[in-house]
Amino acid sequence: MTTTDNLYPELKLFIDGEWISKGSRNSEPVFNPATGEVLGELPHATLADLDRALAAADRGFKVWRKLLPEKRGEILRKAAQLLNSWADQVTKVATMESGKPLTQSRIELHMATEVLEWYAEEGRRAYGRVLTQRQPGSRMLVVKEPIGPVAAFTPWNFPQGNPARKLGAALGAGCSCVIKPAEDTPASALLIAKALQEAGVPDGVVNVVFGVPAEVCPYILRSKVIRKLTFTGSIPIGKELMKICAENMLRTTMELGGHAPVLVFEDANLETTLDMSVTAKYRNGGQVCVSPTRYFVHESLYEKFVSGFTARVNKMKIGNPLDETNQMGPMIHLRRRDAVNTLVQDAVANGATLNTGGEAVTGPGFFYKPTVLSNVPDSARIMLEEPFGPVALINSFRDFDEVISKANCLPYGLAAFAFTDSAKRVKLLGEQLEAGMIGINSYAISVADSPFGGIKQSGHGSEEGIEGLEACLVTKFISEV
User: Fold this and answer.
1) In terms of domains, do 24 and 155 share one?
2) Co-location of 362 and 472 in the same domain
3) What is the chain's alpha carbon radius of gyration, rounded to the nearest angstrom?
């Protein structure tokens, strides 16, 4: 896999251990969202390419599952070491194609390599159990085995972390994988595949393809080879993929959309909460599935919170994410920026107060000003639909039951956050907030050994942690007499 300008890789498919150039295939340009410039030309897999990738995954699974877990772990650890040694290129490539600030790409690389290292070890712990005898000389066993070839579809907002968590779990469990990363951010996933190849992953175990998602994804899922889908993306697309998975009874892990509430109680440390909240809200321009969005602030702190939040936002530096003095980069593409602006304008038209932002940044790239809306009516679309952009919605509340009701009123249940110094309230929040992940006095809700996933329409199943490994294993009962 060669690189252009010694930084951004030449974009290829990776099938059965071979790097495949565009040739006569259809392709699409990959843009730098900060400048609008073309980074490279991404080849689309043909149906023959997809058939080859599926056949390779089928063969690769038979080889990979036979390797001892210790050997698989050695390869995953080496891949993580290689990615760390390539950190300068890997993080700059992720920033160039996703638009997130370079400092955030470095944090993401650490997350990606930590996940690979975690599954390198956890793959050795796919334990079964021995049941008590029912008669002398008998034995009853429960064993865990890899489920088989896994299809993985990943979004663009974490171009290193999402492929790493899906590949790490599948490979750690002994499965092969056909992965279709986002066409907006292909190079980051290809660099992970390169690291895995150089670390010793056998040909066919990892296959990376690209194309028109509505064509490629159903084709892969309808293959008799695939045994499981792991998908991160929107709720509507997730529902359509689940219908296809039902045809072959595929197991699914679905990490879908969110609209995370943040509950700020009267006893919260105001300045600390504000500092943490602004940093968390505008990470990756708000293009994060667990991004805090709906802020409910106790009426005694409300005015101070709105003014303090807005003042901090007005000091943020927006610009090219390769410049480390900038704190926020662009939206991923023009469609995303226009969608955010439409929701903001609808909120204002419905009576919300625009405290700052609310418009695109003039000039090249797809920048949108970090935006703060207060007194946002429940009728505004942005209170019901995930904005997935740099917009904070701040409303007040009076009592605990009221704010719990507001936090839980949507069909989403991915992440929720709260700030309070009351020990009793902390326990009640953990019990009553409807979300798969809850941060109390913290926005840190994802580490390699914790389950990552949601409830309600935000999906089912978990990635990372022992739950992520379990999702790639099947349970077999063996009775011996």
Assistant:
1) yes
2) no
3) 23
Write out the two tokens for 335.
Answer: 């469609």
The model scores a pTM over 0.85? yes
Catalytic residue among 175, 177, 245, 289: 289
Instruction: State the CATH number of the domain containing residue 79.
Output: 3.40.605.10
Question: What does the pLDDT look like over 148-202, one tens digit per residue?
Answer: 999 999 999 999 999 999 999 999 999 999 999 999 999 999 999 999 999 999 9
Q: Does 371 lie in the same domain as 462? A: no
State whether 315 and 300 are in the same domain: yes
Q: What is the extent of the structural domain holding 99?
A: 3-256+457-480
* Residues 43, 23 contacting (CB under 8 angstroms): yes
- 192 shares its domain with 291: no
* Burial profile 180-211: b = 16 or more Cβ within 10 angstroms, e = fewer: bbbbbbbbbbbbbbbbbbebebbebbbbbbbb
Whether 399 and 295 map to the same domain: the answer is yes
d(CA 357, CA 277): 17
According to DSSP, the residues that pair with 416 across neighbouring strands are: 438
Q: What are phi and psi of 104, to 5 degrees?
A: -75, -35
Note whether 437 and 373 are same-domain residues.
yes
Dihedral sign computed on CA atoms, order 356, 360, 363, 367 = positive
What is the tens place of the pLDDT at every residue in 270-316? 999 999 999 999 999 999 999 999 999 999 999 999 999 999 999 99
| Cα–Cα distance, 112 to 129 (Å, whole number) | 31
Q: Is 472 marked active-site?
A: no
Q: Which of 97, 108, 255, 386 is the catalytic position?
A: 255
Two tokens at 323?
Answer: 């410049």
- Alpha carbon separation from 4 to 10, 21, 22, 41, 132 (Å, rounded): 6, 14, 15, 12, 61
What total number of domains does the chain contain?
2
Please indicate, yes or no, whether residues 405 and 289 belong to a single structural domain of this protein. yes
CATH code, domain with 312: 3.40.309.10
255 is catalytic: yes
